[in-house]
C-alpha cells in the first residue's frame, strides 16, 4: 500500500512522456482485450469521449465567480461591498450594498450556465453516437458508442456515416482501396476527397494486424500527417490515408481504420479553439474613460475627506449628534477624515457604471440580430445569410479606413470559364464560346438569359460535318432554352454550373482534333502533341469521378452479424425510397458509365474543373480515377487506361502539379505537368529552332491572355526512361516513409523529376467579376476607405481586373516599377507645389511579390509606407499568403488605422486573422476563410451595406450610448456630492438608499439600451446614397476625447441646476431630508430621460413605450415603497413622502423648472447643429453628389 502512490506517480510521468514524445508507437488493443487498464499498451492516450463544458454542477458557483472576478470592474464593486461591512466606513446598510453586484453577477452566471448546459447537451449527444468496434471475443464488429473508442481500436464506418476518431485507413470495400470522404464539417468543402488504404492489406483481418505503428504527435494541421509501419519494408502513410474525425464517408460502402488519435487529440478537436476574442477600438477607448472616472471619483472623495476634516476642526465644541463609539471618546479628526474617504467612495460608487458592461453586451447581441436578419444581406441563390462570429466588434465596422481584398473568388465569381488556348504555338481564340458567354451578359426579362442548357452529346466518330452541325445548332434559336443563371447553388457538386461545364469548341481546333482522331490511332498519333495536350487536361488533376444519379443520402443497414464482418460488404437497404450509396466509382463495364451525362466531376478547385470540362468538350472524357489508374475516352470512342505511377500534388512553393503515368500504347513513362507560366517556362529543356520559337510565341500568347484578365496555365510533358524512373521511385518511397523533414524530401523528389519539360501549350481561363463589384468599390472609396487588392495572379491580369472593377481609372498614374525613392520624391514635389493645395494626386501602385518583399525589409519599410499613404489604390501581385498578412500588419501598425480583410480561400486565412476585422466570403473554395473570419458574407457587394449602413449605425449607437451612460451616472452622483457641502461632508444621502439603487437598476437602465439598439441618426437610404457620411466614424469618430469631457461638464451643470433649484426653493424652511431629496430625485429622472429624448434621432412606438414606461415605473414603485416602507431604513423614515409631495404644487414647479433650465443649453446646441445640417442639406453641391450617386 505504501508503494501504491509511488507507482501511480511513476505511471503518470511515463504517460506524460508518452504524450509529449514527437513520435508515438501504437499497438493493437485486440491481444489485450478484457485486461485491466494498467496492462493496456495505449492507456496513456486519451479516450474518445470529449468534454467542452467549462463547469461542473458541484463547482459551478466558485468557478464562475472566479471567472467573473477576472473583470476588474467586478472586483472593484465587490471591494466596495466589503468596505461597507466595516462599521467605521460604511455609508448605508451593508445588505443594501450587496444588491447591485449580486444582480449583475447572477445575470452573468445564468447566461454562463445556460451556455455551458448547451455545451453539455452537445457533448452527451456526440459521445453517445453509435459506431462499430471490432471485438476479438465476438469475432466481429459490434455496436458501441463514440466514447468507447480508444487508440489502437479497429473501427468500421459505413456509407454516409460520420467518422468517430482519426483513423488510419487499412481497408475499404472498394477493390482499388479508395474511400471518398466529405470534409464539410471540418472546412466546409462539399466536394469529395479521396483517401487511399495503406498498401499491404488487400484482404484485411483486424486480428492479423500485428507489430506497431509509429506516427507523429497530434497537431492541428488538417493537411498533414506522418506515420509508418516498421515492417521488413518500411511502409509510410500520409494524410492521403487518414480519415479525420467529423468527416463523412461518401460513395464507399464501408471502410475499416486503425485509431491513431482519439478525443481531444483528434485534428478536428485541436482546431476547435473556441470563439475568438477581439477588443474593439471603442472598448479600448472606453477603458481609458473608465480610468478617468476613477480619477474623478477619487478627487471627489478626497475633497469630501478634506472638507470633513476642516468641518470637524471648525467646531468649537463637539456637537451632540456626534455619538462616540463604545470607548466613549471620538476619533481624531484626521482619522475620521481618513475613514470618510472610503465612506465617500461607497456613497459615490455609481460614478463607475456597473451596468454599462452588461448593457453593451445586450446592445451588441441586438445589433447582430438586426444585421443577420437584414433581407438585403441574404443571398437567395445559396440560401445563406450573413454570419456574425465575433460578438464584440460590431462597432468597428463603422470605423474602417483600409480594406485588403483577395481577387479570385472575392472580387470575381471563382467560376472558371475556359476561354482560349495555345497549342504548339498556335492560338485558338474560341470565338464561338465567347459568343455564348456574351449572350449570358445580355439583359433579359426577369433576369433570364438564353443559352444551351445541356452540352451536345459528342459523336462516337468525329467529322467536320458533325462539328459544323454542332456549331450551327449551338447558335440556332431553335435549340436554345431559357434558364436563370443560378450558378451551382442548388447543385450537388461544386464548380458544375452550366456557365462552367459547357464549352463550345473552337472550329479550327475542332477540325484539327477531328483529323488527328479519325480512324484507328497509330503509335505516332497516340503521341501527337495535340492529343497529349488534351490528355494532360483530362488526367493531370485530382478530380473525383462519380455517378450523377445517386444522391448523397443516408444508407440504412440491417443490424445483423452478416453486415459487420470485417471483409464483407454492407448492402444498402432502401427503406425510405432513398438511393443507396454507390460503393464503387463508375466502372467501364457498367453501361451507364459510358454516357458522359451520367458522370459528375468533383474538383478541389474551379481551375481543375474548367480544364476537365474543356477536354470533355473536345471528346477527351475522363471516365474514372483510382489511385493506380485513370481512364480517358478519346474522341474516336476508344478508351485508354493509364497506369498512375505517382501524383505530385500542387503546392504554393512549386506552383504546379504533375501526374506520372504509363502510356497504355507506347508503354512509356510520361510525366504530364501543369502550372503557373513562370513555374513551367523555367523548367523547359534547352532547345533551339522550332521548339524555341514555340516557347516564344506561347509566352506572347500568355501575355495577351493576362492583359485580357484571364488566368493562365502552362501545360508540359516529359518522357521518363525506365532506369530514371526506377531510381527516382526508390527516392520517392523513402521520402514518403520519412518522419523527419518529410515535406522537404517529398518536394525535393518532385523537383528532381520536373526538369527538362517539353512545352505543349497554354490555357486562358476567365474568372468573371461578381455582381455590383465596381459600384461597391466606388462607394467604399467615396466613404474614405482605401481598397487594396492582394492576389497571386500576374501583374497584367491584376491590372486588367483593377480597371474592370473600378479600382484603377484611366487618369491614374500607375507605378509598376521598384523605383521607390524616385516615386516618393515625385509625390513629395507634387504636395509641396502651392498650386496643388487641397488636391490629391491620382496615383495607384502595382507591385509584385519580389519587389514587395524588398519594400517590406527594415531599411525600406518606412519609405514604402510613406509612398502607399498617397496612393488611392494598391495592387499587390504574385504575393504569398504570408506576404498578405504581413502587408496588413504593417499598414495597421505603422499608420494606426482600422483595417478590414476580405477573402474566400484558405490562402486568405492569415490575412483575415491579421486585420482588425476579418470577413470571409462563402464562395467556391471551401469555407476555411469563413471559419477563420469574424463575419461571413455571400458576395462582395454586401460589404457596401454592411459597412456604410450597419457599420455606421452600430458605431454611432454604441458610442452615443456609452457617452450617455457616463453622463447619466455623473449627473446623478453629483447630486449626492453637492449635498455634502451642506451636511458637513458626512456622506449622508438625501435620497433613500433603496430608491438610489432602483434608479440605476430599473428606472433608467432600459432607455439607454433601447437607444443603443434602435436609434437611427441617418436613414439607410441616405447612408447608401451619400457614402461620404461614413467618414464621421473614421479616426476618432463620434466618441472623442472632447465629446466625453463635454458630456461630463454638461452633467456637472445639470446636476448643479437639479440640486440648487429645490435648494433655493426650500431655503430657510423646516422640511426634512427626504422631502428635500424626493423632488430632486424626480427632477433628475425627468432631466436624464429628456436629455436622452433630445439625443434620439428617430422615434418609434417602442421609444414612446419605454420612455413613458420608465416614468410610470418610477412613480408606481416609489409610491408603493413610500406607502409600505415604515422602518425599511432606520432611523430614517421615507413613509408617505412622495404622496405628500404630489399634493404640493411646489413639487411640480420644481420638476418643470429644473428640467427646463438644465436642458436648455443642450437643446439650443442640438437645435443649432440641426440648423447647420439643414443648410448643408439645402446646399446645391450636396444634392449634386446625392443625385449623381443614383
Which structural class do you get from the secondary structure elements?
Answer: alpha+beta
Strands, count: 35
**Low-confidence blocks of residues:** 443-492, 549-580, 582-594, 1172-1190
Helix content: 40-55%
In spatial order, strands of the major sheet run 14-35-34-33-15-29-32-31-30
Shape: elongated
Structure description:
- This protein is α+β, with helices and mostly antiparallel strands and 1190 residues long.
- It has a nine-stranded mixed β-sheet, with helices on both faces. A nine-stranded antiparallel β-sheet has the order 17-16-28-27-26-25-24-23-22, sandwiched between helices. A six-stranded antiparallel β-sheet has the order 3-2-4-13-5-11, with no helix packed on it.
- β23 and β24 form a beta hairpin.
- The longest helix is centred in the last third of the chain and has 39 residues, at 942-980.
- The relative contact order is 0.08.
Amino acid at each position: 500500500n505504501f508503494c501504491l502512490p509511488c507507482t501511480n506517480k511513476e505511471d503518470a510521468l511515463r504517460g506524460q512522456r508518452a504524450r509529449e514524445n514527437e513520435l508515438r508507437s501504437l499497438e493493437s488493443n485486440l491481444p489485450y482485450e478484457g485486461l485491466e487498464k494498467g496492462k493496456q499498451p495505449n492507456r496513456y492516450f486519451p479516450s474518445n469521449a470529449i468534454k467542452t463544458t467549462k463547469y461542473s454542477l458541484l463547482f459551478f458557483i466558485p468557478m464562475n465567480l472566479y471567472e467573473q472576478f477576472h473583470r476588474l470592474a467586478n472586483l472593484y464593486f465587490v471591494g466596495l461591498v466589503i468596505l461597507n461591512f466595516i462599521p467605521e466606513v460604511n455609508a448605508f446598510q451593508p445588505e443594501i450594498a450587496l444588491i447591485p453586484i449580486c444582480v449583475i453577477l447572477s445575470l452573468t452566471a445564468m447566461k454562463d450556465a445556460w451556455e455551458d448546459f448547451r455545451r453539455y447537451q452537445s457533448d452527451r449527444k456526440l459521445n453517445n453516437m453509435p459506431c462499430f468496434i471490432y471485438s476479438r471475443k465476438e469475432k466481429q464488429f459490434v455496436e458501441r458508442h463514440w466514447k468507447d473508442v480508444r487508440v489502437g481500436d479497429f473501427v468500421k464506418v459505413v456509407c454516409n456515416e460520420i467518422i468517430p476518431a482519426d483513423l488510419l485507413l487499412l481497408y475499404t470495400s472498394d477493390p482499388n482501396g479508395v474511400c471518398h470522404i466529405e470534409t464539410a464539417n471540418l472546412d466546409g468543402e462539399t466536394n469529395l476527397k479521396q483517401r487511399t488504404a495503406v498498401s499491404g492489406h488487400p484482404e484485411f483481418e483486424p486480428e492479423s494486424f500485428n507489430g506497431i505503428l509509429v506516427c507523429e504527435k497530434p497537431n492541428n494541421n488538417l493537411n498533414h500527417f506522418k506515420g509508418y509501419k516498421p515492417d521488413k519494408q518500411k511502409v509510410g502513410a500520409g494524410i492521403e490515408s487518414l480519415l479525420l474525425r467529423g468527416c463523412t464517408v461518401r460513395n464507399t460502402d464501408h471502410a475499416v481504420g486503425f485509431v491513431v488519435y482519439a478525443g481531444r487529440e483528434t485534428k478536428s478537436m485541436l482546431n476547435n479553439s473556441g470563439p475568438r476574442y477581439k477588443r474593439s477600438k471603442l472598448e479600448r477607448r472606453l477603458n481609458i474613460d473608465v480610468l478617468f472616472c476613477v480619477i474623478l471619483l477619487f478627487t471627489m472623495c478626497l475633497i469630501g475627506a478634506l472638507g470633513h476634516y476642516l468641518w470637524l476642526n471648525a467646531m468649537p465644541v463637539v456637537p451632540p449628534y456626534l455619538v462616540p463609539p463604545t470607548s466613549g471618546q471620538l476619533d481624531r479628526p484626521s482619522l475620521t477624515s481618513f475613514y470618510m474617504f472610503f465612506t465617500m467612495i461607497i456613497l459615490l460608487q455609481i460614478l463607475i457604471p456597473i451596468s454599462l458592461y452588461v448593457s453593451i453586451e445586450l446592445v451588441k447581441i441586438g445589433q447582430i440580430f438586426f444585421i443577420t436578419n437584414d433581407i438585403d444581406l441574404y443571398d437567395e441563390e445559396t440560401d445563406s445569410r450573413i454570419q456574425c462570429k465575433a460578438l464584440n466588434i460590431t462597432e468597428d465596422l463603422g470605423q474602417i479606413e483600409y480594406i485588403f481584398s483577395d481577387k479570385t473568388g472575392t472580387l470575381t465569381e471563382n467560376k472558371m470559364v475556359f476561354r482560349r488556348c495555345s497549342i504548339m504555338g498556335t492560338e485558338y481564340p474560341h470565338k464561338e464560346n465567347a459568343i455564348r458567354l456574351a449572350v449570358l451578359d445580355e439583359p433579359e426579362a426577369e433576369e433570364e438569359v438564353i443559352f444551351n442548357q445541356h452540352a451536345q452529346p459528342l459523336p462516337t466518330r468525329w467529322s467536320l460535318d458533325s462539328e459544323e452541325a454542332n456549331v450551327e445548332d449551338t447558335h440556332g434559336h431553335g435549340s436554345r432554352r431559357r434558364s436563370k443563371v443560378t450558378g451551382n447553388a442548388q447543385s450537388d457538386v461544386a464548380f458544375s454550373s452550366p456557365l462552367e461545364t459547357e464549352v463550345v469548341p473552337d472550329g479550327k481546333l475542332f477540325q484539327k482534333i477531328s483529323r488527328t482522331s479519325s480512324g484507328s490511332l497509330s503509335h505516332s498519333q497516340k503521341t501527337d502533341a495535340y492529343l497529349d495536350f488534351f490528355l494532360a487536361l483530362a488526367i493531370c488533376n485530382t478530380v473525383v469521378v462519380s455517378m450523377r444519379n445517386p444522391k448523397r443520402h443516408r444508407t440504412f443497414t440491417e443490424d445483423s452479424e452478416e453486415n459487420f464482418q470485417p471483409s464483407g460488404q454492407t448492402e444498402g437497404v432502401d427503406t425510405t425510397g432513398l438511393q443507396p450509396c454507390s460503393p464503387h466509382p463508375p466502372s467501364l463495364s457498367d453501361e451507364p458509365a459510358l454516357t458522359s451525362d451520367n458522370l459528375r466531376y468533383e474538383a478541389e478547385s474551379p481551375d481543375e474543373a474548367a480544364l476537365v470540362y474543356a477536354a470533355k468538350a473536345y471528346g477527351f472524357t475522363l471516365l474514372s480515377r483510382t489511385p493506380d489508374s485513370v481512364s480517358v475516352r478519346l474522341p474516336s470512342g476508344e478508351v485508354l487506361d493509364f497506369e498512375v505511377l505517382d501524383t505530385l500534388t500542387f503546392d504554393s512553393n512549386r506552383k504546379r502539379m504533375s501526374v506520372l503515368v504509363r502510356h497504355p500504347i507506347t508503354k512509356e513513362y510520361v510525366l504530364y505537368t501543369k502550372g503557373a507560366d513562370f513555374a513551367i517556362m523555367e523548367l523547359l529543356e534547352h532547345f533551339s529552332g522550332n521548339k524555341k520559337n514555340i516557347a516564344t510565341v506561347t509566352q506572347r500568347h500568355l501575355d495577351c491572355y493576362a492583359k485580357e484578365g484571364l488566368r493562365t496555365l502552362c501545360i508540359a510533358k516529359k518522357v521518363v526512361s525506365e532506369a530514371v524512373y526506377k531510381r527516382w521511385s526508390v527516392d520517392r518511397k523513402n521520402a514518403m516513409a520519412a518522419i523527419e523533414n518529410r515535406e522537404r524530401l517529398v518536394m525535393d523528389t518532385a523537383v528532381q523529376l520536373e526538369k527538362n519539360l517539353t512545352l505543349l501549350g497554354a490555357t486562358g481561363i476567365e474568372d468573371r467579376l461578381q455582381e455590383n463589384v465596381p459600384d461597391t468599390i466606388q462607394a467604399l472609396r467615396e466613404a474614405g476607405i482605401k481598397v487594396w487588392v492582394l492576389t497571386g495572379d500576374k501583374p497584367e491580369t491584376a491590372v486588367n481586373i483593377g480597371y474592370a472593377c473600378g479600382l484603377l481609372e484611366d487618369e491614374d498614374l500607375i507605378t509598376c516599377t521598384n523605383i521607390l525613392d524616385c516615386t516618393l520624391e515625385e509625390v513629395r514635389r507634387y504636395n509641396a507645389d502651392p498650386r496643388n493645395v487641397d488636391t490629391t494626386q491620382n496615383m495607384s501602385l502595382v507591385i509584385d511579390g519580389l519587389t514587395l518583399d524588398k519594400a517590406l525589409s527594415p531599411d525600406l519599410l518606412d519609405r514604402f509606407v510613406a509612398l502607399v499613404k498617397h496612393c488611392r489604390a494598391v495592387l499587390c501581385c504574385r504575393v504569398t499568403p504570408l506576404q498578405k498578412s504581413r502587408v496588413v500588419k504593417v499598414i495597421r501598425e505603422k499608420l494606426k488605422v482600422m483595417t478590414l480583410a476580405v477573402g474566400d480561400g484558405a490562402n486568405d486565412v492569415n490575412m483575415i486573422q491579421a486585420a482588425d476585422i476579418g470577413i470571409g466570403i462563402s464562395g467556391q473554395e471551401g469555407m476555411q476563410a469563413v471559419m477563420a473570419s469574424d463575419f461571413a458574407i455571400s458576395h462582395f457587394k454586401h460589404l457596401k451595406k454592411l459597412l456604410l449602413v450597419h457599420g455606421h449605425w452600430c458605431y454611432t449607437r454604441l458610442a452615443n450610448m456609452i457617452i450617455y451612460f457616463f453622463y447619466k451616472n455623473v449627473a446623478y452622483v453629483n447630486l449626492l456630492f453637492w449635498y455634502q457641502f451642506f451636511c458637513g461632508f458626512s456622506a449622508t444621502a438625501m435620497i433613500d438608499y433603496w430608491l438610489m439603487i432602483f434608479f440605476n437598476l430599473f428606472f433608467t437602465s432600459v432607455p439607454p439600451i433601447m437607444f443603443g439598439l434602435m436609434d437611427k441618426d441617418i436613414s439607410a437610404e441616405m447612408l447608401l446614397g451619400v457614402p461620404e457620411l461614413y467618414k464621421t466614424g473614421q479616426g476618432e469618430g463620434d466618441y472623442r476625447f472632447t465629446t466625453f469631457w463635454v458630456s461630463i461638464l454638461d452633467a456637472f451643470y445639470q446636476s448643479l441646476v437639479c440640486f440648487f433649484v429645490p435648494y433655493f426653493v426650500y431655503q430657510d424652511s423646516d422640511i426634512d431630508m427626504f422631502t428635500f431629496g424626493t423632488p430632486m430625485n424626480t427632477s433628475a429622472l425627468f432631466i436624464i430621460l429628456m436629455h436622452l429624448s433630445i439625443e434620439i434621432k428617430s422615434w418609434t412606438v417602442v421609444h414612446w413605450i419605454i420612455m413613458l414606461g420608465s416614468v410610470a415605473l418610477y412613480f408606481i414603485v416609489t409610491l408603493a415603497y413610500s406607502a409600505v416602507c415604515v422602518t425599511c431604513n432606520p432611523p430614517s423614515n421615507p413613509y408617505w413622502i412622495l404622496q405628500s409631495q404630489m399634493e404640493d404644487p411646489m413639487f411640480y414647479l420644481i420638476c418643470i423648472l429644473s428640467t427646463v433650465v438644465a436642458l436648455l443649453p443642450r437643446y439650443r446646441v442640438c437645435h443649432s447643429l440641426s440648423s447647420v445640417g439643414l443648410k448643408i442639406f439645402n446646399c446645391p453641391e450636396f444634392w449634386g453628389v446625392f443625385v449623381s450617386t443614383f
